[in-house]
Amino acid sequence: MNRALFRAGHLYILLFGLINTALGAHLKLSKTKWINLTQKLDSLVIFSATILVVCGFFVELPTNDIERPLTRFSLYLILFGVSVHGLISLVSCKKNLNT
Questions:
Q1: Confidence of residue 2 (pLDDT cuts 50, 70, 90)
Q2: How far apart are CA 28 and CA 9, in angstroms?
Q3: Domain count of the chain?
Q4: How far, rounded to the nearest angstrom, does the alpha carbon of residue 39 sit from its chain's CA centroid?
Q5: Which 3 state secondary structure label does DSSP give 71?
């Protein structure tokens, strides 16, 4: 059981790293003030989730308990962050098509 949790932790760290890399490579900040602020705050949420999953890897892994609340919370944060960035991208695309 610990072996599976150890592998999952590595995969989460890899996934979060890839998300941060892709976001850093492709993010274009909007000229609209509220969208720009939302993008920055959401990027901070994604970065915080990455820090949490790395902390969870070291703190939660040595236990025999299958519950990993820190890792679970970081997964919810990354889902929220990626979803909001995706919605902002759709809004920006639609706005560009209308102009």
A1: low
A2: 30
A3: 1
A4: 13
A5: helix
**How many CB atoms within 10 Å of residue 51?**
11
Express each pLDDT in 14-63 by its tens digit. Answer: 999 999 999 999 888 888 899 999 999 999 999 999 999 999 888 886 66
Give the pair of three-digit tokens for residue 51: 């820090």
Quick one: residue 76, left, alpha or beta (phi over 0 = left, psi -120 to 50 = alpha)?
A: alpha
Residues whose CB falls within 8 Å of the CB of residue 40, separated by 6 or more in sequence, listed in order: 29
DSSP 67: -
Q: b/e per residue, 14-40, with b = 16+ CB within 10 A?
A: eebeebbeebeeeeeebeeeeeeebbe
Residue 80 tokens, joined = 């929220």
Q: Name the pTM for this structure.
A: 0.84
Specify the pLDDT at position 29: 87
Q: Give the range of the structural domain holding residue 42, as residue numbers without chain letter.
A: 1-98
